[in-house]
Specification:
CATH topology of the largest domain: Rossmann fold
Low-confidence stretches: none
CATH architecture of the largest domain: 3-Layer(aba) Sandwich
Strand order of the largest sheet: 5-4-3-6-9-14-15
Largest sheet: 7 strands, mixed
Number of helices: 11
Distance between the termini: 27 Å
Bound molecules: 5-S-methyl-1-O-phosphono-5-thio-D-ribulose
Shape: globular
Order of helices and strands: EEHHHHHEHEHEHEEEHEEHEEEEEH
């Protein structure tokens, strides 16, 4: 598998070759490949790679699924391709089953691209309803949700991009997204490449930006949406939802139905990935790259400092104005509404 190494952006557009599943697992853990829908695609191709190499496909799917615990798409992609392989292997030869696995990964990749286009359109229509005044939307986003994490144009970022192309994006506020700077390194890179009007802010500057009346809506992605509508997304999303509520600003989540996990009952049941303390005690623009400090960055805290470093936080449904999927929009966010959207979805169901 040949990946665009996201740890090296924006300085370099470098390829990372993963010749086997352990190499891909390392790429996932170090965030060379990241973001919920892309993790699903990577998991799917990873299992197809194991099948092509004649390796144990079930074990490969298990290893990939465990590489990161929160983004449900990773397990979805890996298990979906493993199931297709096993069904084919039951009735045919190994190479034939490997070809079926690859075809299934390609199907998932294509479906993700299609879902992205539909979410962008539904999201644009929702923004027009929520923000009817002229002059264009000033949107605040967090982490990175564009083409880098998708088979298509992405999730939340795809909505902002479509708004830009239709002339209705006034400004994109990009949270830098501590500690690994997915906003600064990746969203700013994508916004710049697309000629969008954007500014970068530190995560802690968002409050004063709301207070100044500069944010019309918050638009973010998700890594897992529980059956009750609780949303796990990059740490820092929940504080934005609280700010949005206080300032009467819509808080919109954009994610494909493959990110909805009806098997997880509520937000407290979502496993939140805890990452290394060095991501907080050192400052680096290259996550996972080893160098000066233990984690590879410039040390900014005294030796021995402990850190609280969850990769995600959970936003309860009552703080979410709407969830936009490729099957449509729900607002208010309820478990019943979510289940209906998922039932409508043509995505393959994996238990
Ligand atoms: O730790 P990351 O960079 O994989 O986290 C990604 C996010 O939190 C994204 O916002 C989320 O996956 C939505 S991607 C469309």
């Amino acid at each position: 598998m040949v990946l665009l190494d996201q740890t090296r952006l924006p300085a370099e557009e470098a390829e990372l070759v993963c010749a086997d599943v352990p190499a891909l697992v390392r790429a996932i853990r170090t965030l060379a490949v990241r973001g919920a829908p892309l993790l699903g695609i990577a998991g799917a191709y990873g299992v197809a790679l194991a099948a092509a190499r004649g390796e144990d496909v079930a074990q490969a799917a298990e290893l990939l699924e465990q590489a990161r615990p929160t983004a449900v798409n990773l397990g979805y992609g890996a298990r979906r391709v493993a199931r297709a392989y096993e069904e084919a292997a039951g009735s045919g030869s190994g190479p034939e089953a490997a070809a079926v696995a690859l075809a299934e990964a390609r199907a998932l990749h294509r479906e993700d691209a299609e879902a992205s286009g539909r979410m962008a359109q539904y999201g644009l229509e929702l923004l027009a309803e929520l923000l009817p005044g002229g002059g264009g939307h000033r949107l605040l986003t967090h982490c990175n949700t564009g083409a880098l994490v998708s088979g298509g144009a992405g999730t939340a970022f795809a909505v902002a991009l479509r708004a830009h192309r239709k002339g209705s994006l006034r400004h994109l506020w990009v949270d830098e997204t501590r500690p690994l700077l997915q906003g600064a390194r990746l969203t700013a890179y994508e916004a710049g490449r697309n000629g969008m009007p954007y500014s970068l802010l530190t995560d802690s500057a968002a409050g004063s930006l709301f207070a100044a009346g500069e944010v019309d809506a918050v638009i973010i992605g998700a890594d897992r949406i529980a059956a009750d509508g609780s949303v796990a997304n990059k740490v820092g999303s929940y504080p934005l939802a609280v700010l949005a509520k206080y300032h009467h600003v819509p808080f919109v989540v954009v994610a494909p139905t493959t990110t909805v996990d009806l098997g997880t009952v509520d937000g407290t049941s979502i496993v939140v990935e805890q990452r290394s303390a060095t991501e907080v005690t050192e400052f680096t623009s290259k996550p996972g790259v080893r160098g000066g400090g233990e984690g590879g960055g410039t040390v900014v805290a005294p030796p021995g400092t402990k850190a609280y470093n969850p990769a995600f936080d959970i936003t309860p449904p009552e703080l979410v104005t709407a969830i936009v999927t490729e099957e449509g929009v729900i607002s208010p966010v309820t478990g019943v509404g979510l289940a209906e959207l998922c039932a409508r979805s043509s995505q393959v169901t994996i238990s």
